[in-house]
Task: inverse folding
């Protein structure tokens, strides 16, 4: 069984500040890990993913995440927040096998203050 | 860039009515999925579909639900007799064989009154 916990349902940062969105996962099998972003009234857009290999993965819009197996974490970061980053972010896990379902966290709403 | 499309964007129906939600996955994708998100709750997996059959379904996906790929492009979710608790945003997703990560459509907001 798999699960995802996202710490903080709401995160607020100032424009230009570091963004850190936390994600911890539980998986009985080696996981694939994902971050998705959802802008208002839109679908889910894949930001980045970890499957195998390099544990630091880079995604779109300057975001990156690091897979830490010992901490069962996959936190999302961006060095400098932009107003356009305001959205809801979802961490998700799937089993290490193509075609498997995604199990989502509850989501974190990111607010960027000017 | 290819994208998953869904119709309608919003559907209002009365309790007990049948609804069909439609999706057009990305053309060369082979795995198809439905998820739903009840307002204020997590995105939940409903069903996955591969090679013209259901490959996995959740406990939510009971006998009231069915999926079909009626032709080479559409993927539908049917709810036979809607209940108030079926009100949610329904997302379709697809992925390529051998690829991790799914591409999501914009969703259909289903309101059951």
Result:
């Amino acid at each position: 069984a798999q699960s995802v916990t996202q710490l903080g349902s709401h995160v607020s940062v100032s424009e230009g500040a570091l963004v850190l969105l936390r994600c911890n996962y539980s998986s009985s099998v080696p996981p694939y890990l994902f971050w998705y972003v959802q802008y208002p009234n839109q679908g889910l857009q894949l930001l980045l993913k970890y499957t195998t290999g390099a544990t630091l993965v880079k995604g779109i819009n300057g975001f990156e995440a690091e897979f830490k197996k010992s901490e069962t974490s996959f936190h999302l970061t961006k060095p400098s927040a932009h107003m356009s980053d305001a959205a809801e972010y979802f961490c998700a896990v799937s089993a290490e096998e193509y075609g498997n379902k995604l199990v989502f966290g509850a989501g974190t709403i990111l607010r960027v203050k000017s | 860039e290819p994208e998953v499309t869904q119709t309608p964007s919003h559907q209002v129906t009365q309790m007990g009515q049948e609804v069909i939600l439609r999706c057009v996955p990305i053309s060369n994708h082979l795995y198809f999925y439905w998820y739903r998100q009840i307002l204020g709750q997590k995105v939940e997996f409903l069903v996955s579909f591969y090679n013209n059959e259901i490959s996995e379904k959740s406990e939510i996906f009971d006998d009231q639900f069915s999926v079909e790929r009626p032709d080479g492009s559409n993927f539908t979710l049917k709810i036979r007799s809607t209940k108030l608790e079926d009100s949610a945003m329904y997302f379709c997703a697809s992925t390529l064989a051998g690829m991790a990560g799914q591409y999501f459509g914009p969703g259909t907001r289903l309101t059951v009154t």
